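agent> fetching stored inputs for the 6-O-phosphono-beta-D-fructofuranose docking request
agent> found them:
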Amino acid sequence: MPPHSQDFDLKAALSGLRAEQKRLTAISMRDLFAVDAQRFERFSLKLGDLLFDFSKNRIDADAMRKLLEMAARAGVEARRDAMFAGAEINATEGRAVLHTALRNRSVRPVMVGGADVMPDIRRVHAAMARFARAVRAGNYAVSGGKVTDVVNIGIGGSDLGPAMAARALSPYVDGPRLHFVSNVDGADIGDTLNRLDLATTLFIVASKTFTTAETMANASTARVAVERAAGKAHAARHFAALSTNLAATAKFGIPQDRTFGFWDWVGGRYSLWSAIGLSLMIGIGPRRFDELLDGAFQVDEHFRTAPLDRNIPVVMALLGIWHRNVWGYATHAVLPYDNRLARFPAYLQQLDMESNGKRVTLANRPATIATGPVVWGEPGTNGQHAFYQLIHQGTDVVPCDFLVAAEPHEKLGRHHAMLVANCLAQSEALMRGKTLAEAAAELSAAGMPERKVRVLAPHKTFPGNRPSNTFLYRKLTPATLGALIALYEHKVFVQGAIWNINSFDQWGVELGKVLASEIEPLLSGGSLERRDSSTAGLIAAYRRLRGK
Ligand code: F6P
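agent> prediction call returned; pasting C-alpha cells
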C-alpha cells in the first residue's frame, strides 16, 4: 500500500477544515442556497443516468477545495491506482484487492504476482453462466426433475450481496425462486426447508473459506434433509459450492463440476461480482448479471479516471469525512425510496463497518481520529413513520443518503409520484427546517391564542441545516444497482485511504468466534470457573431453563 504522502498530516488537514466549519456554522444552508442561484449545478455530479446531488450539505467552494486538497495530499490517487494494478494493498493479510477485476469489461490485463488474472476470471464466469443457463432451462435436473427453488447458504459477504441484489432486482428474476439462509438460528434453515419441495431444490453453499461455522452447520442440516427426502444416492446433485477452498468443498462431497472458485484477492464483502453471485445469476440470467457488472465497471472507470473534484465516490467520501471528523457526526443513514433496496442499508453496513471499523492505522499505531461511522437505514416512506422524528428534531445530527428512481417498475396510479415527492420533501425539510418565528406565525394564523403559541412553537420548530445527499437514477435496473454498489465501495476505499487504515481485513470478528466455540460445550455442562460472573451467570441460568 503506498503510504500517505510524506508531507501529509491528517490532523493538520482536519484542523484547517475546522476553521472552515467555524465559518460555515454562522451560515445556514438556506442562505447558502439564497446567495448562489447555481448551487445545485455547482454541487451535483452526473454519471450516465445517475445524478448525485450533494448541494444540501453545509459546504461551500472553499471547504470543498480544502477537502479535495486533503484527498490529493493523502495520496488517494496513488492508492487507487495501486488497488487497480493488483498491488498487495491488504497489508495485514498480504493480499491484493481486486474485486474491480471481476467486472473488468475491457481487454486490459490485470496482473497479480506477474500473471494476468483475467483468463481465470473469464473461465469461472463462463462456467457459472453455463450452469446458470442449464438450471434455468431445466437441463440440469435434480432428483425431482427441473430445479424450482435455489437456496443460497452463506453469511456476511457470502449472503448479503446476492440476497440484497435478488430483492433489488426481483422484477428481473425469471428463473427458479431464490431463497437465502444465513443465520445459525435453526429458525432460518428450518422455516426455509419447511416451505420447499426438497426434490426440486438446489442448495448453493457459499463460503469463501468454507469453514464458517454458521454456513457449515446450515449446509450439513440441508444435506441431512435432502438425503432424507431424495435418498443418499441422489442428494449430491442437489448441491453446488462457491469457495476459494476447493479442498474443503471436495471434502463436503460437492463435485468439481459444480464447484465455482474464486481467489483470495476477493474480499468477502466485495464478492457479489464473483462466483458468490451464482444464485443471483441463476435468478436473473447471465445476461442481466453481466449488466450488473457493466454498471459497476462504468463506475470503476469513472473512479479511475475522473479528476478528484468530479469524482463521485471521492466526493461522497470527503463529505463523509467532513461529517465524521470535522462536525463529529457518528452515524450515517442510508434511506432508499425504493422498497426493493430494503436490504441495501444492511449490505452497506457490512461494506462500510467491516471495512472501516478500524482503530489501528497502517503505520501500526492507534488511530487518533474517528474512523468509520455507524451505518444504518430503512426504506422510505416507512422510516418517516418510525425514526425520522430524531433525524429532524433529535439532538444528534444524522447525515442521510436518499436514493430514488425516476421510473418505477409498477405503473400504479399516484404511487410513484407520492414516493418521489416524499423523498424530495424530506431532504428539503432537513435542509430548510422551520424557525421559531415561522412556527409561531403558523400557529397564530390558525387562530391559536398567544399564550399557547409561546408554549407550542418551540416543539414545532425544526433546526434545519441537516445534511443529505440524493441519488436520483432512471430506474433500478441491474446496471443501476451495479453502479450504486461500486460507488459506495469506492467511497469506503477513499475514506480508508485518508484515514490510513486497511479497509480489507476484519480481525475484529475473530474474538467472538473463538469465545463462541469455547462457550458452546459449556451450555450443556462443565466448569464455569474461567468465565466472568456475568457470562457464568447467564450460562447457569440457561442450563436451568433447559433443565440441564
Ligand atoms: O466473520 C466475518 C466474515 O469473515 C466476513 O468477512 C465474510 O463475508 C463472512 O464472514 C463469511 O465468510 P465466508 O465466506 O468465508 O463463509
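agent> quick read of the result: The longest strand covers residues 331-337.
agent> awaiting further instructions
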